[in-house]
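Continuing the batch. This is chain 6 of the set; chains 1 through 5 are on the previous pages. Same settings as before, nothing changed between runs. Recording input and output for traceability.
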Amino acid sequence: MDTLLVAGRVLVSLAVVLALLWYLQRRIGGKMRTARTTPDAVTVVSRQTITPKASVVVIELEGRRLLLGVTEQSVNVLHADEPVAAPAADDSFEHALENAVWSPDAAPVPALRAVSRRQLGGRHKQPTVLAGSILSPTTWRQTVEALRPVR
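Output for chain 6:
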């Protein structure tokens, strides 16, 4: 009988704690929700990943666009643009296309050409799975060469 009484007290206490948490979440969470619905001061316009741990981000802040370099350790401003004017109502894509100027004697964009291994002098080998790791024989050769005294 005592075990049943203790279990009942534990369940009632648990219900009171959960009800208090729910009430506080509703009370405090409502204030936070209204703060999040205000217009954002910073808008991410675009993001391009360069490496798995680095990317370039274009943000808009107070009418200005900033190009940021983002890594795990830092965020650097790469370029700051002049304030961006809001587009007028009559500025549509069709209007911009009509006003675009093209001249047939404009310089073409140079195309990238493929380079063969023979043109590279045969020095570059296909990277192996171990390339750059501590298990790679090439890494150990480079380490020995770096530590070898100069004669």
